[in-house]
Design brief:
Strand content: 15-25%
Number of helices: 15
Helix content: 25-40%
Shape: globular
Strand order of the largest sheet: 8-2-1-12-24-23
Length: 564
């Protein structure tokens, strides 16, 4: 393989940066082309969870009991319930067996210092092979000052309390980390948090010793960790505001480079290409085609630069879209922002004194658990659109919603409000009598911390990550009975994670739609690539974990380096 040309990475998110790093540190230069003016992509806005079975970090922290066999059992058990035929057996085993080595490799490369997210269970705690903790990794706190001038070019998540740690969030509750005991905006929401241990550039590692000022955690911190290491590598170049518009091919069909649009005109860059552009969140036609959702039922909190470029680029040279059922996609119930034209989401739908209903006024799913919400709402044989969040004044007083703090008043016209559930139903266009009966039944069981109808409160991950730890007897259940009552039409909100995407093999090579053979010179890493690796078995952290594993594999292959 000719390794004199650089590799061309299309996308400056976590998978793109990691791919460039794996290539460069194995002897082959890398050029990262990012369409936006900031680096980090959807990963920087995320919770920064990396799922990895049988990882070395859990062992280091004294968490025992995991194995590759258990991790495989877990994925297979979850994947078998919906469209099991979309699971790629070879890709599954390649990911499971390589992922632990990839996570160790990047840590030994000084790209990140991993820690286990404490006490966070696998999504599907009922599945064979599930564990109560140990498979979620994230970064040790890093101080933004280590990025120098690139700190201002890093995306900063508005969706997680960057600066706090997962231990704090899980102890206090996700919603509560944004507000203090008086209902005011908390320090985390102000982008600072005094007294946290952070890690500055005190020695060659960049992670040794406390520093004050700009502690970075969650997705922002994970990306910052990798970015710090990338910036220290002289054979990596990052070019912002370079949107790739076409792939170049030779006469034999191999991909040989890209054409990109920049603020100063069009440029061409030669080399094998790695697509790392994430999904299609801001392409309405792709959303309609892949998810079957129209604008009134869709929004996204991903960067607006995530608009399906990678899918179109791959298809332009013969790649194909591998489809996974829409109702197995990791999308969340959310709402239009209170100001502007953006969208938002949060744990409020899973918190006590709330429920989700369809236009009949009836519940139909475990409405604290996005997996079940998506699975049931978008069931092609029994769709439940439109769908609505219903809550009472106890919820408003305790939690607020979106930018409205606990006890605050919602902006006029943003939600519907009524003194009775029947009147609220009329305002929302749903059956008010049925809504009253649904709330009555739900509340009766909720007082006892039970939901025999749909199992709200039965998912350990949700209870810990989204619930109110101070609410008893359940962190996600409370009666809906105190007027006034509130309601809002929900929409699904994307976060830059898809399941359908570019069809690849287990090593990240893009496959030709006709022959099924790899397209020479073209690879894909991260959420641009279809999650045939796990099929319909999704768990938080799989997207970033698989992305880093593909980055490790692709970077080594393109550099001609063996994998230990």
């Amino acid at each position: 393989m000719d390794t004199t040309e650089p590799i061309v990475v299309v996308g400056g998110g976590l998978s793109g940066l990691a791919t460039a790093l794996a290539s460069a540190t194995n002897g082959r230069r890398a050029i990262v082309l990012e369409a936006a003016e900031l680096v980090g992509g959807a990963a920087a806005y995320s919770g920064g969870q990396i799922w990895c079975g049988a990882n070395h970090v859990a062992r280091r922290e004294g968490i025992a009991g995991d194995s590759l066999d258990l991790a495989e059992t877990y994925i297979r058990d979850v994947a078998r319930h919906l469209a099991p035929d979309v699971l790629d057996e070879g890709a599954l085993m390649r990911w499971l067996e390589t992922s632990p080595a990839a996570m160790k490799y990047f840590e030994e490369l000084d790209a990140i210092r991993w820690t286990v997210i404490p006490g966070l269970a696998d999504y599907h705690n009922e599945a064979d092979g599930a564990l109560p903790q140990g498979r979620y990794l994230t970064n040790e706190v890093i101080d933004g000052s280590v990025l120098g001038s690139w700190r201002d070019k890093l995306r900063y998540s508005p969706y997680f309390p960057v600066g706090t740690t997962y231990r704090e969030l899980l102890d206090k509750g996700r919603r509560a980390t944004y507000v203090d005991d008086d209902g005011n905006e908390g320090e985390a929401a102000k982008h600072s948090h005094a007294g946290l241990p952070a890690f500055g550039l005190a020695d060659d590692t960049g992670f040794d010793g406390p520093a004050d000022g700009d502690p970075l955690t969650y997705g922002t911190g994970v990306v910052a960790s990798f970015l710090r290491r990338v910036l220290a590598e002289p054979s990596i170049e990052i070019r912002l505001e370079h949107r790739v518009t076409a792939l170049l091919q030779d006469e034999d069909g191999a991909v040989t480079g890209v054409r990109a649009q920049t603020p100063t005109g069009e440029v061409q860059v030669s080399g094998p290409v790695v697509l790392a552009t994430s999904t299609y969140d801001w392409d309405p036609e792709a959303v309609s085609d892949i998810l079957g959702l129209e604008p009134e039922d869709w929004g996204s909190v991903a960067p607006e630069s995530i608009r399906g470029d990678g899918l179109r680029l791959a298809q332009s040279v013969g790649g194909e879209l591998a489809r996974i059922p829409a109702n197995a996609t990791p999308i969340l119930p959310g709402w239009r922002s209170q100001v502007g034209t953006g969208f938002g989401y949060g744990p409020e739908y899973a918190m006590p004194h709330s429920m989700i209903v369809d236009r009949t006024g009836r519940r139909y799913c475990n409405d604290s658990y996005w997996v079940d919400i998506c699975r049931k709402t978008l069931d092609p044989d029994d769709r439940h659109l439109p769908f609505f969040l219903i809550w009472d004044d106890q919820h408003r007083l305790k939690y607020g919603l979106a930018a409205t703090p606990p006890g605050g008043e919602y902006p006029e016209g943003w939600v519907q409000q009524a003194q009775t559930l029947a009147d609220l139903g009329a305002q929302l266009g749903i059956d008010g009598a049925a809504l009253q009966e649904t709330a009555r039944r739900f509340s009766g069981f909720a007082r006892d911390g039970d939901d025999p109808d749909f199992g709200r409160g039965s998912v350990d991950y949700v209870n810990r990550f989204a619930g109110d730890p101070d609410n008893t007897p359940s962190p996600v259940l409370g009666p809906i009975e105190q007027a006034p009552f509130f309601g809002i039409r929900l929409r699904f909100v994307g976060t830059g994670i898809g399941t359908s995407g570019v069809h690849i093999d287990g090593d990240g090579r893009v496959l030709d739609g006709r022959s099924g053979a790899p397209i020479r010179g073209l690879y894909a890493a991260g959420s641009v690539a279809a999650l045939t690796t796990t099929g319909t078995a999704y768990n938080s952290g799989i997207a970033l974990g698989r992305g880093l594993t593909l980055a490790y594999l692709i970077g080594h292959e393109l550099a001609g380096a063996p994998i230990a």
